[in-house]
Amino acid sequence: MEGFLQKVADFSAWLWGIPLITVLLLSGLYMTFKLGFFQFRYFGYIIGQTFGSVFKKPKGEGTVTPFQALTSALSSTIGAANIVGVPAAIMFGGPGAVFWMWVIALIGMALKFAESVLAVEYREKNAKGEFVGGPMYYMTKGLNMKWLGVWFSFALMIELIPSIMVQGNSIATTVETTFNIPALWTGIATAVLISIVVFGGIQRIGKVTEIFVPFMALFYVGGAVVILLMNVSAVPEFFMLIFSNAFSPAPVVGGFAGAAIVEVIRWGFARGLYSNEAGLGTAPIAHAAAMTDHPVRQGFWAVVGVVVDTLIVCTATAFVILSSGVWTADGAMDNSSALTSLAFESYFGGFGSILVTISLIFFVLSTVLVVVFYGAKQAEFLFGMKASYGMQVVYILAIVLGAVGAAEVIWGFLDIMLAAILIPNVIAILLLSNKVKALTTEFFTSDQYYKKDQKEKKAKKAAARESYES
Protein backbone atom coordinates (compact mmCIF):
# COMPACT_ATOMS: atom_id res chain seq x y z
CA MET A 1 0.00 0.00 0.00
CA GLU A 2 2.82 2.38 0.91
CA GLY A 3 4.48 1.80 -2.46
CA PHE A 4 1.22 2.60 -4.27
CA LEU A 5 0.68 5.78 -2.25
CA GLN A 6 4.24 6.88 -3.01
CA LYS A 7 3.60 6.36 -6.75
CA VAL A 8 0.43 8.46 -6.45
CA ALA A 9 2.38 11.20 -4.65
CA ASP A 10 5.14 11.12 -7.30
CA PHE A 11 2.61 11.31 -10.16
CA SER A 12 0.78 14.15 -8.41
CA ALA A 13 4.05 16.09 -7.97
CA TRP A 14 4.89 15.58 -11.66
CA LEU A 15 1.39 16.57 -12.83
CA TRP A 16 1.37 19.80 -10.79
CA GLY A 17 4.87 20.56 -12.01
CA ILE A 18 5.66 21.39 -15.64
CA PRO A 19 2.47 19.91 -17.28
CA LEU A 20 -0.26 21.89 -15.45
CA ILE A 21 1.88 24.99 -14.92
CA THR A 22 2.41 25.08 -18.71
CA VAL A 23 -1.34 24.66 -19.35
CA LEU A 24 -2.23 27.52 -16.99
CA LEU A 25 0.61 29.77 -18.16
CA LEU A 26 -0.23 29.37 -21.87
CA SER A 27 -4.00 29.73 -21.34
CA GLY A 28 -3.43 32.80 -19.12
CA LEU A 29 -1.15 34.35 -21.73
CA TYR A 30 -3.66 33.53 -24.49
CA MET A 31 -6.51 35.27 -22.61
CA THR A 32 -4.24 38.22 -21.72
CA PHE A 33 -3.36 38.78 -25.40
CA LYS A 34 -6.94 38.15 -26.56
CA LEU A 35 -8.34 40.71 -24.12
CA GLY A 36 -5.70 43.30 -25.07
CA PHE A 37 -3.79 43.30 -21.75
CA PHE A 38 -6.87 44.83 -20.09
CA GLN A 39 -5.58 44.07 -16.56
CA PHE A 40 -2.67 46.48 -17.15
CA ARG A 41 -4.35 49.06 -19.41
CA TYR A 42 -7.37 49.57 -17.13
CA PHE A 43 -5.83 48.74 -13.74
CA GLY A 44 -6.65 52.14 -12.20
CA TYR A 45 -10.22 51.96 -13.51
CA ILE A 46 -10.60 48.40 -12.17
CA ILE A 47 -9.48 49.50 -8.69
CA GLY A 48 -11.92 52.44 -8.83
CA GLN A 49 -14.80 50.17 -9.84
CA THR A 50 -14.07 47.68 -7.04
CA PHE A 51 -12.40 49.02 -3.90
CA GLY A 52 -13.53 52.52 -4.88
CA SER A 53 -17.19 51.47 -4.93
CA VAL A 54 -17.42 49.28 -1.81
CA PHE A 55 -19.78 51.74 -0.09
CA LYS A 56 -21.83 52.58 -3.18
CA LYS A 57 -25.14 50.97 -4.04
CA PRO A 58 -24.53 48.02 -6.42
CA LYS A 59 -25.78 48.29 -10.01
CA GLY A 60 -28.06 45.61 -11.47
CA GLU A 61 -29.62 42.49 -9.94
CA GLY A 62 -28.15 39.65 -7.93
CA THR A 63 -28.31 37.85 -4.57
CA VAL A 64 -25.31 39.39 -2.74
CA THR A 65 -23.29 42.61 -3.15
CA PRO A 66 -20.16 42.50 -5.35
CA PHE A 67 -18.02 42.99 -2.23
CA GLN A 68 -19.73 40.06 -0.47
CA ALA A 69 -19.12 37.91 -3.56
CA LEU A 70 -15.43 38.92 -3.51
CA THR A 71 -15.01 38.19 0.21
CA SER A 72 -16.76 34.83 -0.24
CA ALA A 73 -14.33 33.96 -3.07
CA LEU A 74 -11.36 35.23 -1.02
CA SER A 75 -12.46 33.04 1.90
CA SER A 76 -11.53 30.06 -0.25
CA THR A 77 -8.30 31.42 -1.75
CA ILE A 78 -6.79 33.08 1.35
CA GLY A 79 -5.80 29.96 3.25
CA ALA A 80 -2.91 27.89 4.49
CA ALA A 81 -1.10 28.35 1.13
CA ASN A 82 -0.53 32.02 2.01
CA ILE A 83 1.20 31.11 5.29
CA VAL A 84 2.75 27.71 4.57
CA GLY A 85 3.04 27.72 0.76
CA VAL A 86 5.15 30.88 0.39
CA PRO A 87 8.02 29.68 2.65
CA ALA A 88 7.98 26.35 0.77
CA ALA A 89 8.43 28.24 -2.53
CA ILE A 90 11.31 30.25 -1.04
CA MET A 91 13.05 27.19 0.44
CA PHE A 92 12.78 25.04 -2.69
CA GLY A 93 13.04 27.77 -5.34
CA GLY A 94 14.88 30.58 -3.56
CA PRO A 95 13.87 34.26 -3.15
CA GLY A 96 13.49 34.60 -6.94
CA ALA A 97 10.41 32.35 -6.77
CA VAL A 98 8.50 35.33 -5.32
CA PHE A 99 9.06 37.26 -8.59
CA TRP A 100 7.58 34.42 -10.65
CA MET A 101 4.70 34.21 -8.17
CA TRP A 102 3.92 37.86 -9.04
CA VAL A 103 4.26 37.18 -12.78
CA ILE A 104 1.81 34.26 -12.76
CA ALA A 105 -0.60 36.34 -10.65
CA LEU A 106 -0.64 39.12 -13.27
CA ILE A 107 -1.17 36.60 -16.08
CA GLY A 108 -3.67 34.56 -14.04
CA MET A 109 -5.86 37.67 -13.66
CA ALA A 110 -7.05 37.15 -17.25
CA LEU A 111 -8.16 33.57 -16.50
CA LYS A 112 -9.85 34.56 -13.24
CA PHE A 113 -11.59 37.44 -15.03
CA ALA A 114 -12.75 35.20 -17.91
CA GLU A 115 -14.24 32.47 -15.72
CA SER A 116 -16.07 35.00 -13.52
CA VAL A 117 -17.46 36.89 -16.55
CA LEU A 118 -18.77 33.60 -17.96
CA ALA A 119 -20.26 32.64 -14.58
CA VAL A 120 -22.36 35.84 -14.48
CA GLU A 121 -23.28 35.66 -18.18
CA TYR A 122 -24.70 32.12 -17.93
CA ARG A 123 -26.08 32.19 -14.37
CA GLU A 124 -29.70 31.40 -13.53
CA LYS A 125 -32.12 31.53 -10.59
CA ASN A 126 -32.69 28.46 -8.44
CA ALA A 127 -35.87 27.37 -6.65
CA LYS A 128 -35.11 29.76 -3.74
CA GLY A 129 -34.77 32.72 -6.11
CA GLU A 130 -30.99 32.91 -5.62
CA PHE A 131 -28.64 33.49 -8.55
CA VAL A 132 -26.42 30.44 -9.15
CA GLY A 133 -23.66 29.90 -11.68
CA GLY A 134 -20.15 28.68 -12.30
CA PRO A 135 -18.28 26.40 -14.72
CA MET A 136 -21.02 23.73 -14.71
CA TYR A 137 -23.52 26.33 -16.00
CA TYR A 138 -21.35 27.90 -18.70
CA MET A 139 -20.30 24.43 -19.88
CA THR A 140 -23.96 23.42 -20.14
CA LYS A 141 -25.49 26.66 -21.49
CA GLY A 142 -22.53 28.29 -23.25
CA LEU A 143 -20.95 25.22 -24.85
CA ASN A 144 -24.02 22.96 -24.90
CA MET A 145 -21.82 20.30 -23.28
CA LYS A 146 -23.80 19.18 -20.26
CA TRP A 147 -21.57 16.10 -19.95
CA LEU A 148 -18.57 18.39 -19.32
CA GLY A 149 -20.56 20.36 -16.74
CA VAL A 150 -21.53 17.09 -15.01
CA TRP A 151 -17.89 15.95 -15.06
CA PHE A 152 -16.68 19.21 -13.49
CA SER A 153 -19.51 19.32 -10.96
CA PHE A 154 -19.22 15.70 -9.83
CA ALA A 155 -15.40 15.86 -9.61
CA LEU A 156 -15.54 19.05 -7.50
CA MET A 157 -18.30 17.71 -5.24
CA ILE A 158 -16.29 14.56 -4.47
CA GLU A 159 -12.89 16.29 -4.26
CA LEU A 160 -14.16 18.62 -1.56
CA ILE A 161 -14.77 15.74 0.89
CA PRO A 162 -11.07 14.87 1.43
CA SER A 163 -10.15 18.55 0.95
CA ILE A 164 -12.42 19.53 3.87
CA MET A 165 -10.99 16.64 5.91
CA VAL A 166 -7.48 18.01 5.35
CA GLN A 167 -8.61 21.52 6.38
CA GLY A 168 -10.32 20.07 9.46
CA ASN A 169 -7.13 18.22 10.38
CA SER A 170 -5.04 21.36 9.84
CA ILE A 171 -7.14 23.47 12.21
CA ALA A 172 -7.40 20.68 14.83
CA THR A 173 -3.65 19.97 14.95
CA THR A 174 -2.84 23.71 15.06
CA VAL A 175 -5.22 24.27 18.00
CA GLU A 176 -3.99 21.13 19.79
CA THR A 177 -0.33 22.13 19.42
CA THR A 178 -0.86 25.74 20.53
CA PHE A 179 -3.69 25.55 23.07
CA ASN A 180 -3.61 21.84 24.05
CA ILE A 181 -7.30 21.33 23.15
CA PRO A 182 -8.17 17.77 21.95
CA ALA A 183 -8.57 17.45 18.18
CA LEU A 184 -12.06 15.94 18.41
CA TRP A 185 -13.39 18.90 20.41
CA THR A 186 -11.96 21.34 17.85
CA GLY A 187 -13.49 19.31 15.02
CA ILE A 188 -16.95 19.35 16.63
CA ALA A 189 -16.76 23.08 17.48
CA THR A 190 -15.66 23.90 13.90
CA ALA A 191 -18.47 21.77 12.45
CA VAL A 192 -21.09 23.55 14.59
CA LEU A 193 -19.78 27.03 13.66
CA ILE A 194 -19.70 26.20 9.93
CA SER A 195 -23.21 24.66 10.09
CA ILE A 196 -24.73 27.82 11.58
CA VAL A 197 -23.44 29.89 8.65
CA VAL A 198 -23.67 27.60 5.59
CA PHE A 199 -27.26 26.48 6.17
CA GLY A 200 -28.24 30.15 5.84
CA GLY A 201 -27.22 30.11 2.16
CA ILE A 202 -25.06 32.55 0.17
CA GLN A 203 -26.69 35.63 1.71
CA ARG A 204 -25.67 34.63 5.25
CA ILE A 205 -22.24 33.51 4.02
CA GLY A 206 -21.82 36.89 2.28
CA LYS A 207 -22.79 38.81 5.43
CA VAL A 208 -20.28 36.82 7.51
CA THR A 209 -17.40 36.94 5.03
CA GLU A 210 -17.67 40.71 4.37
CA ILE A 211 -16.75 41.22 8.04
CA PHE A 212 -14.63 38.11 8.64
CA VAL A 213 -12.33 38.24 5.60
CA PRO A 214 -11.21 41.91 5.83
CA PHE A 215 -10.64 41.41 9.57
CA MET A 216 -8.51 38.26 9.17
CA ALA A 217 -6.53 39.71 6.23
CA LEU A 218 -5.90 42.99 8.07
CA PHE A 219 -4.91 41.12 11.26
CA TYR A 220 -2.26 39.09 9.42
CA VAL A 221 -1.10 41.72 6.90
CA GLY A 222 -1.22 44.33 9.68
CA GLY A 223 1.37 42.31 11.59
CA ALA A 224 3.55 42.24 8.46
CA VAL A 225 3.11 46.01 7.98
CA VAL A 226 4.27 46.63 11.58
CA ILE A 227 7.38 44.55 10.77
CA LEU A 228 7.84 46.58 7.57
CA LEU A 229 7.71 49.84 9.57
CA MET A 230 10.15 48.39 12.12
CA ASN A 231 12.48 47.38 9.32
CA VAL A 232 12.00 49.89 6.45
CA SER A 233 15.71 49.76 5.61
CA ALA A 234 15.29 46.10 4.58
CA VAL A 235 12.82 46.95 1.76
CA PRO A 236 15.44 47.69 -0.96
CA GLU A 237 17.37 44.55 0.02
CA PHE A 238 14.11 42.53 -0.12
CA PHE A 239 13.46 43.54 -3.74
CA MET A 240 17.14 43.15 -4.71
CA LEU A 241 17.15 39.61 -3.30
CA ILE A 242 14.03 38.70 -5.30
CA PHE A 243 15.04 40.29 -8.61
CA SER A 244 18.69 39.17 -8.50
CA ASN A 245 17.64 35.54 -7.99
CA ALA A 246 14.68 35.56 -10.41
CA PHE A 247 16.82 35.09 -13.53
CA SER A 248 19.85 33.28 -12.16
CA PRO A 249 20.37 30.21 -9.95
CA ALA A 250 20.01 31.09 -6.27
CA PRO A 251 23.21 30.53 -4.25
CA VAL A 252 23.62 28.14 -1.32
CA VAL A 253 22.91 30.02 1.94
CA GLY A 254 22.70 28.39 5.38
CA GLY A 255 19.76 25.98 5.34
CA PHE A 256 19.03 26.74 1.67
CA ALA A 257 20.68 24.28 -0.72
CA GLY A 258 20.40 26.49 -3.84
CA ALA A 259 18.07 26.07 -6.83
CA ALA A 260 18.37 25.96 -10.62
CA ILE A 261 16.51 28.64 -12.59
CA VAL A 262 13.90 26.09 -13.76
CA GLU A 263 13.08 25.27 -10.13
CA VAL A 264 12.91 28.98 -9.23
CA ILE A 265 10.27 29.56 -11.93
CA ARG A 266 8.40 26.29 -11.22
CA TRP A 267 8.03 26.95 -7.50
CA GLY A 268 7.00 30.56 -8.03
CA PHE A 269 4.37 29.63 -10.61
CA ALA A 270 3.10 26.66 -8.58
CA ARG A 271 2.65 28.65 -5.35
CA GLY A 272 1.05 31.60 -7.16
CA LEU A 273 -1.47 29.41 -8.98
CA TYR A 274 -2.19 27.27 -5.94
CA SER A 275 -2.79 30.36 -3.85
CA ASN A 276 -5.12 32.41 -6.10
CA GLU A 277 -6.81 29.39 -7.80
CA ALA A 278 -6.94 31.12 -11.21
CA GLY A 279 -8.48 28.69 -13.71
CA LEU A 280 -9.68 26.24 -11.08
CA GLY A 281 -13.32 27.31 -11.45
CA THR A 282 -14.22 27.71 -7.77
CA ALA A 283 -14.28 31.52 -7.37
CA PRO A 284 -16.80 32.00 -10.24
CA ILE A 285 -19.38 30.08 -8.16
CA ALA A 286 -19.28 32.92 -5.62
CA HIS A 287 -19.06 35.73 -8.21
CA ALA A 288 -22.11 34.37 -10.07
CA ALA A 289 -24.40 35.48 -7.22
CA ALA A 290 -23.29 39.15 -7.28
CA MET A 291 -25.46 42.17 -8.02
CA THR A 292 -24.15 43.66 -11.26
CA ASP A 293 -25.31 45.40 -14.42
CA HIS A 294 -22.78 43.62 -16.66
CA PRO A 295 -20.68 40.41 -16.36
CA VAL A 296 -17.45 42.33 -17.03
CA ARG A 297 -18.00 44.63 -14.06
CA GLN A 298 -18.10 41.62 -11.74
CA GLY A 299 -15.06 40.21 -13.53
CA PHE A 300 -13.12 43.21 -12.19
CA TRP A 301 -13.82 41.99 -8.65
CA ALA A 302 -12.26 38.64 -9.56
CA VAL A 303 -9.13 40.51 -10.75
CA VAL A 304 -8.72 42.35 -7.44
CA GLY A 305 -9.16 39.01 -5.68
CA VAL A 306 -5.80 38.00 -7.20
CA VAL A 307 -4.32 41.36 -6.11
CA VAL A 308 -5.37 40.79 -2.49
CA ASP A 309 -4.49 37.10 -2.29
CA THR A 310 -1.15 36.91 -4.12
CA LEU A 311 0.21 40.44 -4.54
CA ILE A 312 -0.65 41.57 -0.99
CA VAL A 313 -1.02 38.61 1.43
CA CYS A 314 1.62 36.32 -0.14
CA THR A 315 4.05 39.23 -0.55
CA ALA A 316 3.54 40.15 3.12
CA THR A 317 4.56 36.59 4.09
CA ALA A 318 7.58 36.72 1.77
CA PHE A 319 8.78 40.03 3.24
CA VAL A 320 8.61 38.78 6.84
CA ILE A 321 10.48 35.54 5.97
CA LEU A 322 13.20 37.11 3.81
CA SER A 323 13.80 40.16 6.05
CA SER A 324 14.02 38.02 9.20
CA GLY A 325 16.66 35.72 7.68
CA VAL A 326 15.03 32.54 9.05
CA TRP A 327 15.20 30.97 5.58
CA THR A 328 19.03 30.92 5.78
CA ALA A 329 19.14 29.11 9.16
CA ASP A 330 20.46 25.54 9.35
CA GLY A 331 17.61 23.04 9.12
CA ALA A 332 15.19 25.55 7.56
CA MET A 333 14.72 23.32 4.51
CA ASP A 334 13.51 20.46 6.72
CA ASN A 335 10.82 22.55 8.42
CA SER A 336 9.65 25.06 5.79
CA SER A 337 6.02 24.98 7.04
CA ALA A 338 7.10 26.53 10.38
CA LEU A 339 9.18 29.35 8.85
CA THR A 340 6.40 31.96 8.85
CA SER A 341 5.78 31.35 12.53
CA LEU A 342 9.52 31.50 13.29
CA ALA A 343 9.87 34.71 11.25
CA PHE A 344 7.07 36.52 13.12
CA GLU A 345 8.48 35.16 16.39
CA SER A 346 11.89 36.67 15.57
CA TYR A 347 10.24 40.11 15.51
CA PHE A 348 7.45 39.82 18.12
CA GLY A 349 8.64 37.02 20.41
CA GLY A 350 5.95 34.60 21.62
CA PHE A 351 3.18 36.89 20.36
CA GLY A 352 4.44 36.42 16.79
CA SER A 353 3.85 32.68 16.95
CA ILE A 354 0.35 33.21 18.38
CA LEU A 355 -0.43 35.78 15.64
CA VAL A 356 0.43 33.25 12.92
CA THR A 357 -1.50 30.46 14.67
CA ILE A 358 -4.65 32.59 15.04
CA SER A 359 -4.32 33.78 11.41
CA LEU A 360 -3.99 30.18 10.22
CA ILE A 361 -7.10 29.19 12.19
CA PHE A 362 -9.06 32.10 10.67
CA PHE A 363 -7.80 31.35 7.16
CA VAL A 364 -8.70 27.65 7.38
CA LEU A 365 -12.11 28.35 8.97
CA SER A 366 -13.02 30.77 6.19
CA THR A 367 -11.85 28.31 3.53
CA VAL A 368 -14.02 25.50 4.93
CA LEU A 369 -16.99 27.87 5.21
CA VAL A 370 -17.01 28.67 1.50
CA VAL A 371 -15.93 25.32 0.03
CA VAL A 372 -18.88 23.67 1.80
CA PHE A 373 -21.09 26.14 -0.09
CA TYR A 374 -19.26 25.37 -3.36
CA GLY A 375 -19.84 21.64 -2.87
CA ALA A 376 -23.51 22.15 -2.06
CA LYS A 377 -23.94 24.10 -5.33
CA GLN A 378 -22.53 21.12 -7.25
CA ALA A 379 -25.04 18.77 -5.61
CA GLU A 380 -27.82 21.26 -6.43
CA PHE A 381 -26.74 21.38 -10.10
CA LEU A 382 -26.53 17.58 -10.36
CA PHE A 383 -29.44 16.38 -8.24
CA GLY A 384 -31.55 19.34 -7.07
CA MET A 385 -32.05 21.46 -3.96
CA LYS A 386 -32.64 18.62 -1.45
CA ALA A 387 -29.36 16.97 -2.44
CA SER A 388 -27.49 20.19 -1.66
CA TYR A 389 -28.64 20.04 1.98
CA GLY A 390 -27.63 16.37 2.17
CA MET A 391 -24.18 17.17 0.79
CA GLN A 392 -23.73 19.93 3.34
CA VAL A 393 -24.30 17.37 6.10
CA VAL A 394 -21.66 15.09 4.51
CA TYR A 395 -19.16 17.98 4.46
CA ILE A 396 -19.90 18.92 8.08
CA LEU A 397 -19.21 15.30 9.14
CA ALA A 398 -16.00 15.39 7.04
CA ILE A 399 -14.71 18.26 9.22
CA VAL A 400 -14.97 16.09 12.36
CA LEU A 401 -13.51 12.99 10.66
CA GLY A 402 -10.64 15.04 9.27
CA ALA A 403 -9.93 16.57 12.68
CA VAL A 404 -9.13 13.11 14.10
CA GLY A 405 -6.90 12.21 11.12
CA ALA A 406 -9.25 10.11 8.98
CA ALA A 407 -8.09 11.62 5.65
CA GLU A 408 -4.38 10.78 5.83
CA VAL A 409 -4.59 7.83 3.40
CA ILE A 410 -6.21 9.89 0.61
CA TRP A 411 -4.21 13.12 0.95
CA GLY A 412 -2.00 12.05 -1.97
CA PHE A 413 -5.02 11.93 -4.30
CA LEU A 414 -6.09 15.54 -3.66
CA ASP A 415 -3.92 17.19 -6.31
CA ILE A 416 -4.93 14.62 -8.94
CA MET A 417 -8.60 15.31 -8.19
CA LEU A 418 -7.95 19.05 -8.46
CA ALA A 419 -6.52 18.45 -11.94
CA ALA A 420 -9.77 16.68 -12.89
CA ILE A 421 -11.57 19.97 -12.12
CA LEU A 422 -9.04 22.39 -13.57
CA ILE A 423 -8.59 20.76 -17.00
CA PRO A 424 -12.28 20.82 -18.08
CA ASN A 425 -12.63 24.40 -16.78
CA VAL A 426 -9.61 25.68 -18.75
CA ILE A 427 -10.93 23.90 -21.86
CA ALA A 428 -14.32 25.63 -21.39
CA ILE A 429 -12.70 29.08 -20.90
CA LEU A 430 -10.67 28.70 -24.09
CA LEU A 431 -13.67 27.46 -26.11
CA LEU A 432 -15.73 30.41 -24.83
CA SER A 433 -12.91 32.96 -25.17
CA ASN A 434 -14.69 34.69 -28.08
CA LYS A 435 -17.71 35.24 -25.82
CA VAL A 436 -15.50 36.77 -23.11
CA LYS A 437 -13.84 38.98 -25.74
CA ALA A 438 -17.25 40.11 -27.10
CA LEU A 439 -18.56 40.95 -23.61
CA THR A 440 -15.36 42.86 -22.76
CA THR A 441 -15.51 44.84 -26.02
CA GLU A 442 -19.20 45.61 -25.39
CA PHE A 443 -18.42 46.89 -21.89
CA PHE A 444 -15.59 49.20 -22.95
CA THR A 445 -17.23 50.54 -26.14
CA SER A 446 -20.89 50.89 -25.08
CA ASP A 447 -22.20 54.24 -23.83
CA GLN A 448 -23.93 52.40 -20.95
CA TYR A 449 -20.85 51.21 -19.06
CA TYR A 450 -17.19 52.30 -19.31
CA LYS A 451 -17.83 55.47 -21.35
CA LYS A 452 -20.68 56.46 -19.03
CA ASP A 453 -18.43 55.93 -15.97
CA GLN A 454 -15.70 58.08 -17.55
CA LYS A 455 -18.18 60.88 -18.37
CA GLU A 456 -19.50 60.83 -14.79
CA LYS A 457 -15.95 60.95 -13.45
CA LYS A 458 -15.08 63.96 -15.63
CA ALA A 459 -18.31 65.72 -14.62
CA LYS A 460 -17.49 65.22 -10.92
CA LYS A 461 -13.97 66.57 -11.42
CA ALA A 462 -15.29 69.60 -13.28
CA ALA A 463 -17.88 70.25 -10.55
CA ALA A 464 -15.22 69.92 -7.83
CA ARG A 465 -12.93 72.34 -9.72
CA GLU A 466 -15.74 74.90 -10.10
CA SER A 467 -16.61 74.59 -6.42
CA TYR A 468 -12.95 75.11 -5.46
CA GLU A 469 -12.51 78.14 -7.74
CA SER A 470 -15.70 79.80 -6.50
From TrEMBL:
It is found in: Cell membrane. Coiled coil: none annotated. InterPro entries: Na/Ala_symport (IPR001463). Residues 450-470 are annotated as: Disordered. One of its GO terms (molecular function) is amino acid:sodium symporter activity. Keywords: Cell membrane, Membrane, Symport, Transmembrane, Transmembrane helix, Transport. It is a multi-pass membrane protein. The keyword tRNA-binding does not apply. One of its GO terms (cellular component) is plasma membrane. The chain crosses the membrane at residues 13-33, 69-93, 99-120, 147-167, 179-199, 211-232, 238-262, 300-327, 347-375, 387-404, 410-432. Belongs to the alanine or glycine:cation symporter (AGCS) (TC 2.A.25) family. This is Sodium:alanine symporter family protein. It comes from Planococcus glaciei. The lineage of its organism: Bacteria, Bacillati, Bacillota, Bacilli, Bacillales.
